[in-house]
Write a structure and sequence with these properties.
This protein has 207 residues and is of the alpha/beta class. The protein has two domains: 149 residues, Ribosomal Protein L4, Chain: A (3-Layer(aba) Sandwich); 50 residues, no CATH class. 32% of the residues lie in helices and 14% in strands. Strand 4, helix 5 and strand 5 form a beta-alpha-beta unit. It is elongated.
Length: 207
């Protein structure tokens, strides 16, 4: 399959030959679901944490004597029924990691890439460079390819400050490297801009 390659002016300059074997991959929806679910769960910090009655400070002595006061008996102010006491069955800090087999992850990445190519959601650029280190300049160039500020993923072979700084204020754009692209990125964004060198590096991950 041949893909058109465009320059920064959105003019076709050449064609890129994509091996049909890359597009001819079949995986079950369950695999994509599992990979996406694992990615989202692994992004969860899991830092919510409450103290039990054994962790709350104070409460070393009995608040008042057992009998004779007319009040209910209590053994500690750290009891969960006291204000400022411990919490019963509250959230505890934990980190749950979901592991995905490397081969399965690679197949899922290849499958979602093939799908985005077939639906014409990928725009191939010969390069991505800016003449000025300004957000306005970057937005002007991107709007030649992207309409209505759609959520866009920009994939480069490598990133540096001259590219990152002008585009970091564009809310609908995410920039990443070909070596760090994941299934979630290719799935969630409406349009994908990728340079020719980045495509070659991304395809090398399937070998």
């Amino acid at each position: 399959m041949k893909l058109n390659v465009f320059d920064m002016e959105n003019k076709k300059v050449e064609e890129f030959e994509l091996d049909d074997k890359i597009l001819d991959v079949k995986v079950k929806d369950d695999l994509l679901h599992n990979v996406l679910l694992a990615y989202l769960n692994n992004q969860h910090i899991g830092s919510a944490h409450t103290k039990t009655r054994g962790e709350v400070s104070g409460g070393g002595r009995k608040p008042w004597r057992q009998k004779g006061t007319g009040r209910a008996r209590h053994g500690s102010i750290r009891s969960p029924i006291w204000k400022g006491g411990g919490v019963t069955f509250g959230p505890r800090a934990h980190k749950v990691r979901y592991k995905v087999n490397k081969i399965e992850n690679k197949k899922a990445l290849q499958a979602i890439l093939a799908k985005r190519v077939k639906t014409n959601d990928i725009i191939l650029l010969n390069e991505f460079s800016l003449t000025e280190n300004k957000t306005k300049t970057a937005a002007t160039i991107l709007n030649r390819f992207i309409a209505d500020n759609q959520k866009t993923l920009l994939i480069l072979e490598k990133t540096d400050s001259s590219v990152i700084r002008p585009v970091k204020n564009i809310k609908w754009l995410k920039i990443t490297k070909a070596s760090e692209v994941n299934v979630y990125d290719l799935f969630i964004y409406n349009k994908i801009l990728i340079t020719k060198n980045a495509v070659e590096k991304l395809l090398a991950r399937f070998n």
